[in-house]
Amino acid sequence: MSKKVIITCALTGVLAKKEQCPGIPYSPVEIAEEAKRAYDAGAAMVHIHARTPEGGPSWESSVFGEIKKEIQKRCPVILNFSTGGIGLSIQERILHVVDHKPDIAALNMGSMNYAIYSRKNKKFYHDYVFANPFGDIQYCLEQINLAGAVPELECFDVGHVGNALPFIDMGVLKTPAHFSLILGVLGGISTKSGNLACMSRNLPEGSHWEVIGIGRDQWRLIREALELNGDIRVGLEDNFYLPNGEMAKSNGDLVSMGVALVKEMGKEVATLAEAREILQIKN
């Protein structure tokens, strides 16, 4: 495991709106400006979803292409495209990766219930089944490989980690594999202390991994990940707030806090060149 810590910043997601957090970017230019702020603050990688002008989710390949172009005008940060989506065919979910060949392509490693629950209103919002059967995972892996990108295996529960093993056996997933361990999404594993360690213990030998903590428990989970020699993700997709409860004005604010925590834990932040080498990025 590398002693240098790669910091990824998830810039926008698909659900949060500017009414909830004014810093959320929608347009390709806004997303690119946030990518530059994140890069300048210390992020080696940015995780990208596309938005419509009104702030809804977009899976239009051309929009991802515009985002890539605008970011590359501003900085050389590693580009990580999401392939998540509900109600779309797997071909629609992966097309922008095939067309625009990012450095990294995120890949969901299992099916799950996916929702937000309001304790105040006693009701569910965004109540979906997020379907990722093995056939779709295999198709995505094959397309990611053809695009020359590195797959990022997004695991929302311990069982999702184990779902990688058949693909390693088939040879379609190369090792060491790159995992993202996601805690705090309703329907997946919670942020309870000890869960991250459990997930990390189930990783295939020699795997590279980062933590993705959803909500305000993110900062505690980042500390846990650093203690376990993992990498970290921050960003407005996952959490709006700094540890002191103040809402971040930009993704750069969250990256700066991530850098401070890495240094506080006696570790070093990976440079762009170091991150590319660790992740074996060839694009």
Q: SSE order in H/E notation? A: EEHEEEHEHEEEHEHHEHEHEHEH
Helix coverage percent = 25-40%
Strand content: 15-25%
Count of separate DSSP helical elements: 10
What's the CATH C level? Answer: Alpha Beta
Annotation, overall tally of beta strands:
14
CATH architecture: Alpha-Beta Barrel
Average pLDDT = 96
Radius of gyration: 17 Å
Residue stretches low in confidence (pLDDT < 50, at least 5 long) are none
State the secondary-structure class.
alpha/beta
CATH homologous superfamily assignment: Aldolase class I
Shape: globular
Largest sheet geometry = 8 strands, parallel, barrel
Q: Kindly report how far apart the N and C termini lie.
A: 23 Å
What is the CATH topology classification name? TIM Barrel
